[in-house]
Write a structure and sequence with these properties.
The chain is α/β, with parallel strands linked by helices. It folds into 2 domains: 130 residues, 3-Layer(aba) Sandwich (D-Maltodextrin-Binding Protein, domain 2); 94 residues, Periplasmic binding protein-like II (D-Maltodextrin-Binding Protein, domain 2). The protein contains 8 helices and 12 strands. A 5-stranded mixed beta sheet has the order 2-1-3-12-4. Strands 9-6-10-5-11 form a 5-stranded mixed beta sheet.
């Protein structure tokens, strides 16, 4: 983890040291998670394409972890802890995760007051994670872990959001998926005193002696779009 962070820091430094302004051309192959990509990359990618008409952009929206080198990707957007030190990485945005459910479900089943209460509830689980253990930090800073059995599982966050809106149970979701439903009241955040462990969105790319200008320009563009406080978190309480 430490070696990966050093590589990420070096990437951040290198990204600020080039003033090359050459026109960007050629195939530009990008991988991004399905829900995040469709909700939050569609407009930026269209804008980026308009700014750089010489690029032929190939977008792959898929939640699988692609092999950038073997499959010929220039860059991938990943929402995860950094693990693979063979790749360079730059942080794009913090990713908060919250628990939420529909008002109807909470009226029928009650609102959990502490993590252990979740054992008495219907859990909607994201199937691409390696564990059924949900981890929280309590108001006093203590760590809480709950091993939960799922009422429903899916490998797509938007499907789980729909299930939660229809009263089927509680989801643990990145705020970038549920932010509009939280704002509208269709979903209600719960256990806010027990924040769920957070992640980051990274742009990752293969280690090369010279970073292609199209990759550097694209990453800088996305960092400017998302900033330190992403727009999807602005109306969600900390």
């Amino acid at each position: 983890e430490r070696s990966v962070q050093i590589i990420a820091d070096i990437a951040e430094i290198n990204a600020t040291t080039s003033n090359t302004k050459a026109a960007l051309t050629g195939l530009f192959k990008i991988s991004a998670p399905l829900s995040f990509g469709l909700q939050h990359l569609t407009e930026p990618i269209n804008e980026f394409a308009a700014l750089h008409p010489g690029l032929v952009i190939h977008m792959d929206f898929n939640d699988r972890k692609v092999d950038l080198v073997a499959e010929g990707y220039d860059v991938a957007i990943r929402i995860a802890a950094l693990k693979d030190s063979s790749l360079m990485a730059r942080k794009l945005a913090p990713i908060r995760r919250i628990l939420c459910a529909s008002p109807d479900y909470l009226a029928r089943m009650g609102t959990p007051q502490k993590p252990q209460d979740l054992k008495e509830h219907h859990i909607l689980h994201y199937a691409n994670t390696e564990s059924n253990i949900w981890r929280f930090t309590g108001p006093d800073g203590g760590k809480h872990s709950v091993n939960l059995s799922a009422r429903m599982m899916a490998n797509n966050g938007d499907f789980l959001k729909s299930a939660a809106k229809n009263g089927h149970g509680i989801i643990q979701s990145p705020t970038f998926i549920v932010w509009q439903e939280i704002a509208s009241g269709e979903l209600v955040a719960i256990l806010e005193d027990y924040p769920y462990s957070s992640l980051n969105a990274y742009a990752v790319y293969p280690q090369t002696r010279h970073l292609p200008q199209r990759v550097r320009t694209f990453i800088d563009f996305l960092k400017d779009k998302f900033g330190g406080a992403p727009y999807w978190d602005k109306n969600i309480s900390a």
